[in-house]
Design brief:
single chain; mainly beta; Immunoglobulin-like
Length: about 150
């Protein structure tokens, strides 16, 4: 192998190792709320933990069971009404956690291509700044099994 080619490959390998690994984002208590078999949407909840030394930015979310997956927040208007709003990204500072919970920030799986049943596990991947993905299996549960 020519020396220039070897140096290029070595430099690429070093740069790849310098990118923070997705292991900095860990998951606690992931779950999806079970829905009727004809439902086009379902919600997901989890605590996202940034165990790294740098802020993690979630830039998107995907799963094979939905045509579209989004992060949502809930806003309360002056009249007391509440509505969901799309979060285009979610920042988690180093050493911090963000809770996605019923009635608050959450995942919204839309255009379900299949409706998972209670007991099923669904892989959900969080797309991070820098191009990495952090994925976890989310068990499907009835609300009473998970809503404390």
């Amino acid at each position: 192998m020519p020396r220039a080619c070897f140096k290029t490959l070595l430099a690429g390998a070093v740069l790849a190792l310098a990118v923070p690994a997705h292991a900095e984002l860990t998951f606690s208590d992931p779950w999806l709320r079970a829905v009727p078999p004809v439902s086009p949407t379902m919600a997901g909840y989890v605590t996202l933990n940034n165990t790294g030394e740098d802020t993690v930015i979630i830039t998107g979310v995907s799963t094979p069971v939905a045509g579209h997956t989004m992060l949502h927040d809930v806003e309360t208007a002056a009249d007391g009404s509440r509505r969901m709003v799309h979060l285009h990204h979610l920042e988690i500072p180093a050493g911090d956690s963000v809770v996605l919970a019923p009635g608050d920030r959450h995942l919204m799986l839309m255009k379900l291509t299949q409706v998972p049943a209670p007991g099923d596990k669904v892989e959900i991947c969080f797309h991070l700044n820098g191009g990495q993905d952090a994925c976890a299996a989310f068990p499907v549960k009835r609300a009473s099994q998970s809503d404390g």
